[in-house]
Amino acid sequence: MLRNKGAMFGLIVIGAAIFVAVTGYFIAPDASPDANRIIVEIGGRKPGFSQLFLLLKKQGSVTRTSFFYRLLYGREDRYDYIPINSYMQQMDSLIVEKYVDEGVAERRAYFSPTGFRIETRRFWLGTDKYGRDILSRLLIGVRVSLAVGMVTVLLSLSVGVLLGALAGYFRGRVDEIILWLVNVIWSIPTLLLVFAIMLVLGKGFWQVFVAIGLTLWVNVARIVRGQVLAVREREYVEAARALGYSHTRILFRHILPNVMGPVWVVAASNFASAIVIEAGLSFLGVGVQPPQPSWGLMIKENYNFIITHNPVLALAPGVAIMLLVLAFNLLGNGLRDALDVRV
């Protein structure tokens, strides 16, 4: 697989996505929980713009967080961010021209015996309509895409491998029942099936993952069934039966380890499919709920900008989805070539 340039590109992109998912709150410009720092005055600004801010310490104490808590959930802002055009210090007071809107400013005075903190922030991908940093939400949002893919693959492999193995090994009545279930699930459009499962489970973060995982197992089951049917008559399986081994031992120790090659290829494909389905569900409003950043939700919140003055706000998460899905598809092609299997 190392000689397959496409697969290596996919592996690099996936590795970078995992690194960003783990360290997101340390490398994102907005490290607040869910990258949800709302500054309405600068909403809908174009990529690359800079803004001067007056940072005022929040009233009351801000909860201190441990390293691991910040790694998982971010850290609450210690300051209020006030956009300004200019400022002038007089003794313990600061006279500022507060930015309200394009061409609109308001003059204000602030007093602080401990001094003031002034910063210039650059928003490389612009801000959404709520004034949140698109780059930060893009970086934190990769967690949702990787998480839904991982949970989906685990669920689809668990259900699909088990049912496919039982159908291929025992054949007969068991095979007929499982094939009937596979055909029924196969005949229902994926999104409709996900909607039906979510009506039972409810809307939410983990419910989305489970619902998607329970719809993508049929591919795995069909492939495992076919592989087990081909392997169950091999000499080493007949020898295991002659030695009196149980069906469970034969199936899980002698058959399944020899048929998993094609399954890993399908797992990569399911990972990519799960990312696209989750993005579609979030765009429709039944997936990940705000303010949690999801690439599909970001497209939904900013798609109006495509036909106005700032299309990057919606195109950036779309390009991110495309790159990650492409990476998993290229990795799947590399696995197929490396394992020399035909799916």
UniProtKB/TrEMBL annotation:
Residues 142-332 form the ABC transmembrane type-1 domain. It comes from the Bacteria. It holds the Pfam family BPD_transp_1. The chain crosses the membrane at residues 7-28, 146-170, 177-199, 205-224, 263-286, 306-332. It is found in: Cell membrane. GO terms for biological process: transmembrane transport. It is a multi-pass membrane protein. The keyword Cytoplasm does not apply. GO terms for cellular component: plasma membrane. Keywords: Cell membrane, Membrane, Transmembrane, Transmembrane helix, Transport. Belongs to the binding-protein-dependent transport system permease family. This is ABC transmembrane type-1 domain-containing protein.
